[in-house]
Amino acid sequence: MTTEARHPEDGDPVNPFPVDWLGDDEMAPELRRLHRLKAQAEAREAAVIARAHRRGVPQAQGFASPTAWLIATTGEPPAVCRSRVRVALALQHMDHTRQAFAAGDLSECRVRLLVDARADAPDLFRRDEPLLVEQARTLPARMLPKALSHWRRLADPDGARYDAEAAFLARRLHISPTWEGTVRVDGDLDPESGTVVMTAIGSLAEPWALEPGDTRTPAQRRADALVEICRRHLDSADRPTRNGERPHITLTLSPPDLTGDGLIDLDTGPITADTARRLACDACITPITIDAADQPQTAGNARRTTPPALRRALDLRDGGCTHPGCDIPARWCDAHHIVHWAHGGNTELPNLKLLCRRHHRTAHHHQPYPKRE
Ligand SMILES: [Zn+2]
Ligand SMILES: [Zn+2]
């Protein structure tokens, strides 16, 4: 009996020899080879699914649909199987795509984009398929969707108009508290609205808008930018009133909330006492007492923690955020109490300084947060 290494031609094409035998220069070619091999396997899988469907194999074996049969056969999630069946059935009518897929020239994700393009305009796709397959084979993956939608616009202007209308009708935004104590923001926008939002967020989050040494990740910067835009809106004078008041964040806090270091529950999840102190640092305060029946009673007039005249003097003195190197203008800054009023600090110029939202946050959160797993 021999134990000689096998060659790809006469043995297992996926594992022709141990990976350890690969030289450094052979790694990239091996990955390219496997990438093509994977596409070939996926193309064969699609061909089997299509053939089984034509012969009625799923129904003969008691399944309601090819998707149900594929789920039972492979154990893959329903969404994955549904997409595979859709691709497999569409490929029966896409000769050039199917051949390029089978040759390993197109990956499955590129094939899926071509299937989508065909679904939008089947007749035009048949006419232009050789050209589109050539583009799918050669263009970088991130440019292919753009190229395909460009083709669609040129080939079928009415259809493209219909798509634009559908994208606008499909706009949605969901904002909901999660079980983990965060708030999930998720939605879809038509291209024009999306551009407005991306431009606004980019104006605060893109590298040129940042100060040197900013260590936030791009995703964190986008999140901060969205919040900042909403805050500026709430602070601006020209927004609708509700019951005669401009809507703003309202927190009901007790003195122990403000001086302690426990957690305070909001509708959207808990906040720390540090956060409560920061929010109360520059706020509009309405004193409330609780009566004998545990009902809250308004006991005094609302007042700014920093009255308008004092704020104007502070704006004049500081001009903007006082954090070294930060140039956020005064109108977007908070009036920070150096010694917090809840800890007995007074509201006079020497105990106040302007800080932008980000540096105000840093000033109140001296302690690093405990690391979460
Ligand atoms: Zn403060
Ligand atoms: Zn700042």
Topology:
Blueprint: H1 27-55, H2 57-60, H3 66-74, H4 78-91, H5 95-102, H6 108-120, H7 122-138, H8 144-155, H9 157-169, E1 172-177, E2 183-188, H10 191-205, H11 218-235, H12 255-259, E3 263-266, E4 269-272, H13 273-281, E5 284-285, E6 288-290, E7 296-298, E8 303-304, H14 308-318, E9 333-337, E10 352-356, H15 357-364
Antiparallel strand pairs: 1-2, 3-4, 5-8, 6-7, 9-10
Verbal overview:
- With 373 residues, this protein is mainly α.
- It has three domains: 28-164, no CATH class; 172-235, no CATH class; 255-364, no CATH class.
- The chain has 15 helices and ten strands.
- The chain has a two-stranded antiparallel sheet with strand order 1-2. A two-stranded antiparallel ribbon has the order 3-4.
- Helix 3 packs across helix 4, helix 4 (78-91) packs across helix 6 (108-120) and helix 10 (191-205) packs across helix 11 (218-235).
- The radius of gyration is 31 Å and the shape is elongated.
- Mean pLDDT is 85; it is low at 1-6 and 367-373.
- Residues 321, 323, 326, 328, 355-356, 358-359 line the site of one zinc ion.
The percentage of residues in β strands lies in 5-15%
Helix content: 40-55%
Oligomer: single chain
Terminus-to-terminus distance: 53 Å
Instruction: List the uncertain runs.
Output: 1-6, 367-373
Strand order of the largest sheet: 1-2
Number of helices: 15
Helix and strand element order: HHHHHHHHHEEHHHEEHEEEEHEEH
| Tally of domains | 3
Bound ligands: zinc ion
pLDDT average, as an integer? 85
Radius of gyration: 31 Å
SS content category: mainly alpha
Q: Tally of extended strands?
A: 10
Give the biggest beta sheet: 2 strands, antiparallel
* Overall geometry: elongated
